[in-house]
Amino acid sequence: MQDHFGEALSEARGDACSHADVYTGLQGVIAVLAALQHRNNTGEGQYVDVSMAATMLSVNERAGALLSGIDTDGEPIALSANESHIFEMSDGTRLTIAGSPIYSPMFTRYCAMMRRSDLLRDPRYATANLRRKNLPSLLAEVRAWLGTFDDLEQLQAQVSEGGLAIGQIRSVNEFAASDWVKEWNAVVEIDDRAGGTVRMPGNPWIFSRSELPAPGVPAFQGEHNEEILTERNLTADEIVDLKKRKVLLSRRGPFGAFD
Questions:
Q1: pLDDT confidence bin for 1, thresholds 50/70/90
Q2: Tens of pLDDT along 99-137?
Q3: Cα 212 from Cα 3, distance rounded (Å)
Q4: Residues contacting residue 72 through CB under 8 Å, at least 6 positions apart
Q5: What is the C-alpha to C-alpha distance for residues 74 and 100, in angstroms, rounded to an integer?
Q6: Alpha helices, DSSP H only, in 134-248?
Q7: 213-220: long-range contacts at Cβ-Cβ below 8 A with a sequence spacing of 24 or more?
Q8: Which of 9, 103, 187, 203 is buried most deeply by CB count within 10 Å?
Q9: Is the pLDDT at 237 greater than 70, yes or no?
Q10: Can you give the residue ranges of every domain in the chain?
């Protein structure tokens, strides 16, 4: 994390998102689908073992470069979050621009976007290492330019001329209210099993021929513990013992106390 976020961290800490859990689950589904396809082709079934540690290596776009030991001479090894920056327009709209001006091809596009060819000849920005060293002054140039816009569409048109893209920074609730989310049906209302509804993420895919069913009613945490463990041949007494020792926890509602 310290290498990833650099000085943005005042202390070592983890990420707020459960990357390892989510990605390993997705890789597990992919592996099962591959094994089922193998069975369809050969008639042979097999076990699948998915490693959380190996998953985190496989989805880390920096891992390959770091493991290779290649000297990039200051060039970013991946165009992702820690090399991107958040800017603000004169009306307070916050946005990010794809890619970092530290990366040489992106620096050229930033200069084209701002119509500032003079920056290409500025000795402070001649190399990736120099741009990294003088990044505050380079970002000040970008912020000053952005401050001349009060229309997001006009800004986006000029950014696109330079071969770049922008994204508006919004909260989850602001994004959920957008026209795109409504068109995609990316947020859905589902039964909360308490006489109302609750908003949840919808399906991330749309198929050209198949119509996807609406999301099912969600289970409460631990609701099916007994059913699943009974299928695994645990006795009723063993399940009661697990509950008493707080090994098994369940809720009677989405925010209810643990039983």
A1: very low
A2: 889 989 999 999 999 999 999 999 999 999 999 999 999
A3: 42
A4: 65, 128
A5: 12
A6: 135-146, 152-161, 172-176, 179-184, 225-231, 236-244
A7: 214/188, 214/190, 215/188, 215/190, 217/190, 217/191, 217/193, 218/190, 218/193, 218/254, 220/193, 220/250, 220/251, 220/252, 220/253, 220/254, 220/256
A8: 103
A9: yes
A10: 2-60, 81-168, 219-259
User: Tokens 């202390």 label which residue?
Assistant: 11
Give the pair of three-digit tokens for residue 92. 């307070």
CB distance 209 to 236 below 8 Å:
no
CATH 3.30.1540.10 fits 81-168, yes or no: yes
Host H or E run for residue 2: helix 2-5
Task: State how far the Cα of 201 lies from the Cα of 185, in Å rounded to an integer.
Answer: 9
Cross-strand bridge partners of residue 96: 86, 167
**Three-class secondary structure of residue 217 per DSSP:** coil
Band of pLDDT at residue 19, cut at 50, 70 and 90: confident
Q: Residue 24's CB: how many other CB atoms inside 10 A?
A: 19
